[in-house]
Amino acid sequence: MFASENLDHIANLGEQCRCWLLDVAEQVPVTWHLSGFDVSTDQFPTNAYLPHNVSLQQMDAFDNIPPALVESFDIVHVRAVCVVVKGGDPKPNGYLQWDDFDPDSFVAYTPYPQIAKASSDEIIAMWASYAKKLDLDFRWLSNLSDRLSEQGLRVTESKRFGPMDKVRKAATDDWMVALEETMFVILNRSSESEDAKRRFADLLKKTVEETKGGVGMWIDWLIVVGVKE
Description:
The protein is of the alpha/beta class and about 230 residues long. Helices cover about 30% and strands about 25% of the residues. The chain has a seven-stranded mixed sheet, with helices on both faces. It has a two-stranded antiparallel ribbon with strand order 6-8. Helix 2 (about 120-135) packs across helix 5.
């Protein structure tokens, strides 16, 4: 798509996934303009390490989008935001690519019945219960393509990626890290007791041991592409 169409202004929202933008930079002409935006600059590499046509800027997607950026991009890419992006629509005939995970598909699995996964199931249930307490309802993600259609985009591609053997171990390790980080943040910022924190820490240790024995974790990934006509 990049090589055959005149789509020379690309934006990536949430530049923690800046690897996507840098990968694209290797596939498109050097005359194209690639812009990355994130709420913090802490993870930005120094400009000296960036291709000359890539720029990284600080921006909070929940603030008003600067007028100069509205309808100024041919392709807008967002990933793992799990919220409805405000503003920053692609310009007419521009594309929005939305990659996200579906938390409602979070599951622990075991290759053999004799391998226990009770702690893994429990820690996922604990995570889901705290998400509910924070009023996080992810059911809309299952119909992400319909949501984009309702906003006037013509969906050109919609895919769901379930468990894949070749990345099961890597995916499990990634989700374990994400689970640990998000739960500790939630528990430390909430009014939960020290008992809840100790319970989670104990569950985490038991879950780690289960994953060493072959238990895996997976959350389905969704990719939806829409064009604004």
